């Protein structure tokens, strides 16, 4: 069950979305450690969602539905701010990256909050938990295996993206890095608009 949950965590993390763009942008600006810290914030949120899903609390699932709209708007605002910040900050030279970065803990916390702004993901993890446990309530050991698997699977993707992708990104020239970073900022703003549209329709 751990390995199945790990593959699910990997599948959830891998599609390119706002968190992936943030990871790429921050790897460009601050190096792989900053990119990894960004991704681990999302992995931690995925693990918390998995924990809520396997717990199967009806009250928690109801609360997730009630908070969907306000948290969606909060996530939209946070995403728009991150997109604008990406566009406005100058690209630093490699020697100055760690000194001028947003900081590992700040990157982690910001991504954690951004990912938690989508509480409807709990419903997805509730369905995943039911599928993995054969439709029966998951035992304590099964719940631990699912949560740990999701965390490790998601974290492994961010580790590969930050360090493996970072090695490829480092081969870009200064101009290429600036264009890619600007593209990430514009796409983040696009995701903010999409999130606002979804929040308005909830």
UniProtKB/TrEMBL annotation:
It is found in: Cell membrane. The chain crosses the membrane at residues 6-24, 36-55, 67-87, 108-132, 144-167, 179-200. Keywords: Cell membrane, Membrane, Transmembrane, Transmembrane helix. The keyword Cytoplasm does not apply. It is a multi-pass membrane protein. This is LysE family transporter. Pfam families: LysE. The lineage of its organism: Bacteria, Pseudomonadati, Pseudomonadota, Betaproteobacteria, Neisseriales.
């Amino acid at each position: 069950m751990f390995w199945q949950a790990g593959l699910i965590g990997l599948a959830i993390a891998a599609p390119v979305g706002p968190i992936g763009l943030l990871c790429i942008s921050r790897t460009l600006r601050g190096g792989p450690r900053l990119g990894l810290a960004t991704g681990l914030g999302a992995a931690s949120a995925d693990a918390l969602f998995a924990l809520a899903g396997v717990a199967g609390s009806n009250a928690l699932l109801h609360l997730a539905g009630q908070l969907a709209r306000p948290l969606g708007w909060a996530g939209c605002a946070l995403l728009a701010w991150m997109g604008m910040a990406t566009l406005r900050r100058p690209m630093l030279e490699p020697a100055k990256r760690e000194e001028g970065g947003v900081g590992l803990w700040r990157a982690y916390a910001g991504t954690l909050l951004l990912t938690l702004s989508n509480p409807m993901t709990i419903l997805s993890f509730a369905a995943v938990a039911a599928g993995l446990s054969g439709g029966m309530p998951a035992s304590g050991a099964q719940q631990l295996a699912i949560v740990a698997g999701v965390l490790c699977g998601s974290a492994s993707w961010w580790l590969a993206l930050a360090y493996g992708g970072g090695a490829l990104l480092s081969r870009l020239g200064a101009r290429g890095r600036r264009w890619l970073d600007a593209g990430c900022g514009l796409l983040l703003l696009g995701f903010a608009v999409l999130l606002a549209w979804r929040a308005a329709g909830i």
